[in-house]
Amino acid sequence: MKKSTGMMLGTVSAAAIVLAACGGAEANSEEQVIIYSNADDEAIEVMESTLDDKGYKGKYLIQSFGTSELGGKMMAEGTDIEADVVTMASYFIESAQTTKSMFVDISSDLKPLDGGVTYALPILGNVGSIFINTEVLQQKGLPVPQTIKDLTDPAYKDLVSFPNIMDSSTGWLLVQAIIKDYGEQEGQKVLADLISNAGPHIESSGSGPIKKVKTGEVAAGFGLRIQAIDAKNEGLPIDYIDPTEGNFTLTESVAVVDKEGDEALAKEIAKVIATEARGGLLEQYPVALYEGEQVKDEHVPAYLKKWDSTLTVDLLEKHQAFFKEAQR
């Protein structure tokens, strides 16, 4: 489900796909709210349909970017960025606000479970887990893993896949779980053994591991939990396992750029995305982010955990360095 999202230290070519719910060239772009987004196509479709239904058709223009490219623009340009609104990985928004003070305060009646911030509203969340191909496990006589560390068993040599933190935000969910549970010293060995077992199956895309598990090229993988749930519900021999090290979550949020002018329309649109579109986004990404939200039991992770401090680009870079060290 999740598209490949290049990280701050990676290189991702611009998608720069204009997804305009605005009647094309007939609309005057000067009168439109420009939205920059790193969201999946599925999420953008939900945002567009909601905005159109709420009477904003022709009043906005969405441009899609990879996470690395949009994050780089935010960190480099600050309030000079062309966008009036951004939907983006929350850690990038927080880092940009800290260094550039580029967003205005927005609010809604929804109450974020994590307390939230004044300048951004969460719109969707992704959670990590282990998933397995039950047929391949049986054929290979492999034990069913219950932890990430179980995947370092030599029996899994060349039969496990996970995303590279240098290229995919999904890979960060794995590294957070390892460091949080084992600490840096033991965690370094766990990660090194996992890297060795994965061999050629360390993927640049967050969706790479589930694809290889589906085809049976590998027996187990780590990635987005919802991908495995969807595959299992399709009748494929796929199951998902919540590792005891923890199911960590990354969120994406919406924020309004401080243009030192009238941001009224931009704020309206941002709030519609965060509130009115939330129902559709919750169906696509079943992670509760606000008080009162309910998801099916199968979507509730057994070991939901979060990092001790706020996720930032600086923290990501430290964890990328941790990964590089484990590769040696």
UniProtKB/TrEMBL annotation:
Keywords: Signal. It holds the Pfam family SBP_bac_6. The keyword Signal applies. PROSITE patterns: PROKAR_LIPOPROTEIN. Residues 1-27 form the signal peptide. Coiled coil: none annotated. It comes from the Bacteria. This is Extracellular solute-binding protein. It comes from Lysinibacillus irui.
